[in-house]
Amino acid sequence: MNLAETDTADSDLVTAQENAEELRGLIESDAVNDAAVVLDRMPEEERSAAVGELPTEAAADLIEHLLEQQAAEILEQLTPDVAASILEELTSDVRADLIAGLDAQSAFDILQAMSPVEAEETKELCRYEPDSAGGLMVTELLAFESTSTVQAVFDDLAEHSEEYRDIDVQYSFVVDGKRLVGVLPMRDLFLAKRSTPLFELMIKDPISVTDRTQLSALEDVFDNHSFLGIPVVNESQELLGVVQRSSLEHAIAAHDRSDYLKSQGIIGGEEIRSLPVFERARRRLSWLSVNILLNILAASVIAMYQDTLSSVIALAVFLPIISDMSGCSGNQAVAVSMRELSLGLIRPAELMRVWGKEISVGAINGMCLGMLVGAAAFFWKADVMLGIVVGGALCLNTMVAVSIGGMVPLLMKRFHFDPAIASGPILTTVTDMCGFFLVLSMASVLLV
Amino acid sequence: MNLAETDTADSDLVTAQENAEELRGLIESDAVNDAAVVLDRMPEEERSAAVGELPTEAAADLIEHLLEQQAAEILEQLTPDVAASILEELTSDVRADLIAGLDAQSAFDILQAMSPVEAEETKELCRYEPDSAGGLMVTELLAFESTSTVQAVFDDLAEHSEEYRDIDVQYSFVVDGKRLVGVLPMRDLFLAKRSTPLFELMIKDPISVTDRTQLSALEDVFDNHSFLGIPVVNESQELLGVVQRSSLEHAIAAHDRSDYLKSQGIIGGEEIRSLPVFERARRRLSWLSVNILLNILAASVIAMYQDTLSSVIALAVFLPIISDMSGCSGNQAVAVSMRELSLGLIRPAELMRVWGKEISVGAINGMCLGMLVGAAAFFWKADVMLGIVVGGALCLNTMVAVSIGGMVPLLMKRFHFDPAIASGPILTTVTDMCGFFLVLSMASVLLV
């Protein structure tokens, strides 16, 4: 190694230590989110070194508050030992989510560096879909044999009080071997004699879900019961973990957020502006390039009516208005359908109900918007027929747009496409084609 | 009263009882959400009668699962006594939210029918902003005097066990008079001698928030600590209530959802399709009518270039493409900015950072999209200059669109407009005007 290289390595270490010092100060003064922003603003190559210099607990705290992709990049660059010890500080569900987001080699190396029991458990959890009960549950919980006494529970709590510090102890679970047979509200322990066995105190046949239960079904269970946590079992009724109400709410929020981003054309994971520019451009472009082909397709309708356009050039002013306004009306209908679907207020098969509800609103709004635009056209060119053509086309196309906008999310859902991604482009293409056709064909009859 | 009227009244009652029977069956078999859908599908005038026929507890369960506007309509139509007894079944925060959503007269009448203590408490809670700690907290909690002994707590729990059933008892709070002085993890009670006074056991100087703490600050507190609930105090450090983690997550989800709906033009409350058609049309139209005026403004740029358009009619095909595609690119930037703002990754003042990050992505994607559209124009008309004009304009306008899209949410936030509502229309108007101007002015120089 020559002198220059040593210097660089030394100065890198100094930078990392200085960065870590700044992060640590923020984390220890309860400003983890600020620390996440500071890390986000560091040059990419400095981030993992800074995290590596942090005390393990602080590093874990910080990693938990990063977006998944950024956390993954950092964990992949740390040595497997350091990454493993950071991950061991986190709760089982967070740990599994992070491992699942790593490239295969890093995931393997880090699991190797973890304790065999935790590695095995983490691998189990990684197998679940993120939006299932198995993917949302934590495995940290209190479970006692049904034959144990109240006294035995008290002793166990006293012995492991440090270890249990971060566990939700509102309820403990009662098992025969691994099989869940009851839940025990901890408050009932206060009132019981110390020699009572738990099977006399416990609530029998408790509500539980299986590890495959999906997000929407979980939502129903939590809606129907005021519990803060619900036990998760496998097909053999063996206790696997517990889903907390706050984890469920968190997952729902993440789901809605990802729908919003997808509907605006941010696909393939959340974008933050500290990602490399080519990565950001590539992701956005994948969506844009599909859209531009659909746009060219729609505009080809205009190309077929060039003669009409040449003779009434004023129409060219109104084509983008009709395209934009139909898009707006249709998007309103898409948003209401997406919302009603996620609330369970409509089933994907109820196309006719949605159409009936939309067409009436579309008729009212279409007439209002059509009159507005028709009046604008009339006053501009003093041409009644131009006003009628433009206003009439917008009125009709508004009805088309709300019908498509309302029904497309249901159709997408029914045929297992993602309604958040596909609804917008389909809506725009169809309403553009239809709008251009309406205004230009009416013009070719009435104006030319 | 004549015979016909009696018949109608009788048959109304029978309908209400039959409806209530159906709802009750669903609610009691843990399908409250299905009951909400059934109610949603009933004719508007039958809904409150059906709810009025339900047992109070079932009615409360159902009311809690309706959208706020629908719940308000039903409560307003019930007699104040019935409405009050339903509301008294709900937790303090839900009750206050519902009362706040009623018309003033109904709210007054129902509060009059409630017990004076609960009415007073509800009025207090109604004064808070919904997204503040005061608006999110529940007042149901366990608080004990610091001089009480462990034995006294056990006795109190035993005595009120039924009443405390729905209270989160993970922690109880320790007070001197009304002043919060400590928190007491319930598990620590198990390990303590029964004669110990609470001030010896409690965690002193607990983390708390004030009733005015805003949603984003609350999020930070919960991010920095793993607590399931955080006590809320006033300026005099008096204990007012507790905000639960799941309530916070719920509020954040509602916030994001409302942003999504607003960005798609659903303003003034969530729309469900069982609302009256004129109400739905009116709400959507208020947003559309602003948009159409902005659209006409943008299209007036085209009107100024009619001569250019007449001589190169092919341009009319590309105007809507440029408008739509710029809108798509800009909306992607809006979505990323909205998200970074809500994550706290950018501050509203960081315009230049956002612009720098956007313009580079815009340049890459603008070039790709410009080449695509330019090639399409060239192959269609075998006209190199047409391709250059159309492609060049789209390339430049993509850069404009991402710049505006990225920066507008920050500007809106800085000047206290709602970025979810205002960003879209501003983006569309500016990029349309700019796009039309670019393509038509370039054409007037290069093509005519």
Automatic annotation (TrEMBL), chains A, B:
Main localization (coarse): membrane
Keywords in alphabetical order: CBS domain, Cell membrane, Magnesium, Membrane, Metal-binding, Transmembrane, Transmembrane helix, Transport
Membrane topology, record value: Multi-pass membrane protein
Entry-linked InterPro entries: CBS_dom (IPR000644), CBS_dom_sf (IPR046342), Mg_transptr_MgtE_intracell_dom (IPR006668), MgtE_N_sf (IPR038076), MgtE_transporter (IPR006669), SLC41_membr_dom (IPR006667), SLC41_membr_dom_sf (IPR036739)
Keyword Transcription: no
CBS domain segment(s): 202-260
Record's subcellular location: Cell membrane; Membrane
Pfam families listed in its UniProt record: CBS, MgtE, MgtE_N
Residues annotated as transmembrane: 285-306, 359-380, 386-412, 424-447
GO cellular component: plasma membrane
Any one GO molecular function term: magnesium ion transmembrane transporter activity
Quaternary state and interactors: Homodimer.
Task of the protein: Acts as a magnesium transporter.
Family of this protein: Belongs to the SLC41A transporter family.
Record protein name field: Magnesium transporter MgtE
Species this chain originates from: Novipirellula aureliae
Record lineage: Bacteria, Pseudomonadati, Planctomycetota, Planctomycetia, Pirellulales
